[in-house]
Amino acid sequence: MSLTIHHLHLSQSDRILWLCEELSIPYTLKTYNRDKQTSLSPESYKELHPIGTAPIIQEGSITLGETNAIFEYILTKYGQGRLVLSPDHPNYADYVFWLHHVQGTLQPALNSTLTASEGDMMGQVMKARLNRSLDMMNSQLKTNEYIAGDEFTAADCMMMFPLTTFRLFVPFSLEEYPFIVEYLHRISEREGYRVAMEKADPGLARPITAVVNLNK
What we know:
Strand content: 5-15%
Family: Belongs to the GST superfamily.
Mean pLDDT: 93
CATH class of the largest domain: Mainly Alpha
CATH architecture of the largest domain: Up-down Bundle
Distance between the termini: 42 Å
Helix content: 40-55%
Oligomer: single chain
InterPro entries: Glutathione-S-Trfase_C-like, Glutathione-S-Trfase_C_sf, Glutathione_S-Trfase, Glutathione_S-Trfase_N, GST_C, Thioredoxin-like_sf
Radius of gyration: 17 Å
Organism: Penicillium steckii
GO molecular function: glutathione peroxidase activity; glutathione transferase activity
Number of domains: 2
Strand order of the largest sheet: 2-1-3-4
Keywords: Transferase
Structural class: alpha+beta
């Protein structure tokens, strides 16, 4: 059986490609363009899985959605202990936290605050949560090369999308977070990252600087 990644252009499914590239896992890539009118996924993508959102993978009779579920599936089935930290590792708690923090807190906060109307109470709550998240991330990266410590892990593969590709949709500044910006530059130099991002969206320049310039 071969693993098939269904990648919606300009979406978080790009990190599934990256995870596979870092693990040197062979896969078949099928890409889908966003609807020109709505910028949402096309019907052909929505029909792949009941959840209807990116990412989605298939292997044999299995069709699986949800980023964290796909990460767990790939790491457990193919990782052979790579890109994860074991429970007896001193940074295990950091690894688990950051692996799940992106989907659990960071992206929901971004989605809420960057689309909220002025004076929206929930938007203000989520903005505060976003600021705490970025502050904590910046502090973590001040003393660590990677998000869970000195080792590159799957948590790093989870981290890049909201800080890069997502900012093409709704630009936001990272000027207050210099250690996050340094981290983005370090990660963007990885061969696995470069190969995966070019396969996902050929020619797309993802922002890794503090300020997003969409005119470039």
